[in-house]
Every structure is written in structure tokens, then in C-alpha cells.
TrEMBL record:
Single Gene Ontology MF annotation: 2-methylcitrate dehydratase activity
UniProt keyword terms in alphabetical order: Lyase
Family, similarity comment: Belongs to the PrpD family.
EC number in record: 4.2.1.79
Summary of subunit composition and partner proteins: Monomer.
Domain MmgE/PrpD C-terminal: 284-471
MmgE/PrpD N-terminal domain ranges (all copies): 20-262
SUPFAM superfamilies cross-referenced by the UniProt entry: 2-methylcitrate dehydratase PrpD
Organism of origin: Subtercola lobariae
Catalytically driven reaction(s): (2S,3S)-2-methylcitrate = 2-methyl-cis-aconitate + H2O
Protein name (record): 2-methylcitrate dehydratase
Enzyme class, first EC level, given as a word: lyase
Amino acid sequence: MKLHEVRVYKSEENLAREDQLAYKIAEVAADPVAVTDEVSEMVINRIIDNAAVATASLTRGPAVAARAQALDHPHAPGSTVFGVDGRYSPEWAAWANGVAVRELDYHDTFLAAEYSHPGDNIPPILAVAQQAGRTGTDLVRGIATGYEIQVDLVKAISLHAHKIDHVAHLGPSAAAGIGTLLGLDVETIFQAVGQALHTTTATRQSRKGEISTWKAHAPAFAGKMAVEAVDRAMRGQTSPTPIYEGEDGVIAWLLDGPDARYEVPLPEAGEAKRAILDSYTKEHSAEYQAQAWIDLARKLHNEHPEVTADSVEKIVIYTSHHTHYVIGSGANDPQKYDPTASRETLDHSVPFIFTVALQDGEWHHERSYSPERAGRPDTVKLWHKITTEEDAEWTRRYHSNDPAEKAFGGRVEITLTDGTRIVDEIAVADAHPLGARPFAREQYIGKFKTLAEGVLEPAEITRFLELVQRLPQLDAAELYGLTVTAKPGLINLAANPKGLF
């Protein structure tokens, strides 16, 4: 990997195109380096993972609405949409599938200076692969690039520190991945990356206070913009330049300002793109920083049945800065303690999540969020006894560049009314590569089968799993099989919500 210094330049400095970050990203995307077998196998895992969580979302409101929009845009050759038959315009297929993948907050993650769900790259890259008649090998190459660019940007440039939503790293990465998929030249990819970034910067209010259904749409919008940006660039249209480094650009006005300096790691020419191996998926449908807390709460449920809403005086979770201020009491969002809050809000409340997992000894993507579950009196009572505090050591570990030290958990101290103190800690989730039960192909398949139960016919489950595991060998026609069709009667197209189209 090579570190590239990125800073703001005044217009009169006339930064050469070849020295701009967007151009360097494009050079990585255009590099014909082979994908390693290990990366190829992980790409398969993540396609299975995406399909699993999208399948579980097929009847949820955001996925229904986004799918209805896509169905109003049939196209040939087109791209597939999760849940239904037919072919649709690739940017709208990317939109619908992106929402379905993101809705349950249940797919993969990478956390560093910024945080991300790099699996969000897959829907737009797959949609373009189908539209353009590409092969499974091409798709693997495109996805490897999408992961590489997003993870590398996330390692170097914080967006949330300036209240910019994390999908600002997704637009460029998806555009770069599509560029690799299509074998585009550096100049075309450069223009697409710039356009994708320019159109996908937005504030973090989508993840603050009363979190709305837009949370599921935000990454899908970035993917859709990436598809459109590539299309425009292929037609010879250009983008604002330099998009990152310009004196009126993203860094100068949206991020660290005119004196900012970043060091962005990118693969050198001929170096394999391996960043997907740094990312990790979720065993539970919740914000990633809550994954380890669910696992610790399940453990405490079994070890300490004496912990109840009545026996507890207080529970303090000591954790990283990010966990405390984004999904903990440090956010100062009263909605995080509101039993009538939206699912999207509860998903970003570690006090709520820890309470339910502690009481139930499990976490379920639907039952654990139900209004009845959130409003149970003993749950509300215990929930309001839980606070979070930042711990400097856990913050340091959260930001560590050493994979063996990097952690997303913390320490919990439970004080009972009789004075008893229960103290325990967890560094990473059980499903993390360094966790108690790391996810491998068997677990990805198990997750898919669990979430597909009652949604897909058994034959459809088998068909998809057999096909996807042959990904590098798939031809263009077979690539259309990388979708799922819901069991008859599950999706009522006549009931689709209506809009302009």
C-alpha cells in the first residue's frame, strides 16, 4: 500500500490531474491486477449475506416503496430486483436492491476514521454487471475494487466528525467498482468518481434524533448516483475538479477545512485489492457497535439470572467515544430511551439493545424491535437505568490500526440494589474474525437460510446458494440468477404504494 497525501490547494496552484485523489482512485480501479482466491471467496460470502438480509426485508415498508419505484422502470436487457421477476433499469434496480440490503442494518461493516457498510457497493455493481452482460469474474473484480476504495477512504478520512453522512465514501467507491467491472479507462473513471462524490454528500441528520426510513435509502441513493455518474462519464461528461482538494471542494468546506491533511492508503500498481478481508459482517440486526454488547448481554443473561429490572440500581457501559456519542446516552437523544421510537432509532440505541438482549438472552431482527417488546414495563424500567460513558482506552482501541488490538466493545458495570457489583467486558463481537465464533461460509449460508425461511420456497433457496458459490465461473446469462423470487402470494404488487410514476 502507498500513502497519498491529500490537502487543499488554491486554484492558482493548479493541482495536476494525476496528483488528485479521484485520479489516483481511478488508477487503482483501472489496474488489471488479478483477484486472489481468498478475496473471491469472501465476495461470494458477502453476496450471500446481502441476499439474506434483503430477503428478510422484502415486505418491509422502505423496501416495498423502493421496489415499487423500480418496477415502474422496466428495461431491456436490464437488471433484476430482489423478490420479483422481470428486468428493470439498472440505476433503479440498484436503488431497490440497495434499500432492501440496508433496511435491517444487518450486513457487513468496516470501522476506522469513518464507518461504513461496504456491502452497499454490491447492488449497484451487480445491477450494472447484469445490464452490461458481464461475467461472474468481471463482477468479482468490480466488487473487490468497490470494497478496496471504500475501506481505504474510511481508514483515512472522517466524515462523521463534520456531521457528513458516511455514504459520501460510497459514491466514489461504487463508481470505481463499476469502472473496474466495465474495464473503463482511467479518465472516464476519474470523471465518474468526481461526479459520484459531488452528488452524494449529505448531513448526518439522517442518523440523529428520530431516525427515519431514509436511513435505508441513503446508501441506495449513493449507489444509484454512482450508476448515473458512470453513465454520464461514459458519454463524455465531466465533473467538478479537483473535487476533494479544490479550494471550494469537499475537504475545504465540508470536512477538515483549508489546512486539512490526510494520508489515504491505496494499493500500488500490480498490488492485489484485499480490503474486503478487513471488513466483517453482523450476526445480529443492529448497529455494528451494538454487536459485541448483544453477545455480552446474552452471556450475562445465562450467568446472572438475578439481574432483573427490580434488582438493578444502575448499569454503566464504558465504551468508545463513537459508541457513547452515536448510539449511547452521550448522543443526548431522548428518543434513544423512548419505547415508541421507530425501529431505526431503537437500532441506534445501545441502552435499549443491551436491555432486551440481557432480558431475553437472544436477539431477533423482528421480535426484538416490536412495539410490544420495546414497551414492556420491566424493559422500560431497566432500560432507563442504563447509561454509557466514554472510556479513553476503549476509544484508543477503537481507532487502533492493529487488527489484533482494534475493538468495538467495552466494559459493563452492573450495580444491584443490595450493593453487589457485576463487571464484565468484551472486545469484539462473537462473529468477528477474532471473536468467539467467527463467521465462515457455513455461517453465511446459515444466516441466509434462516432469514429466507417462510419468504422463499426451499427450491429457490437451494438454487441461489448453488449458483452463487460458482460465481467466478458464471457467464452473463447466469448472472441474472443472482437474485431471489419470493414465494407465491408474499408480495402483492397491486398494493404497491403510488407516487409520480
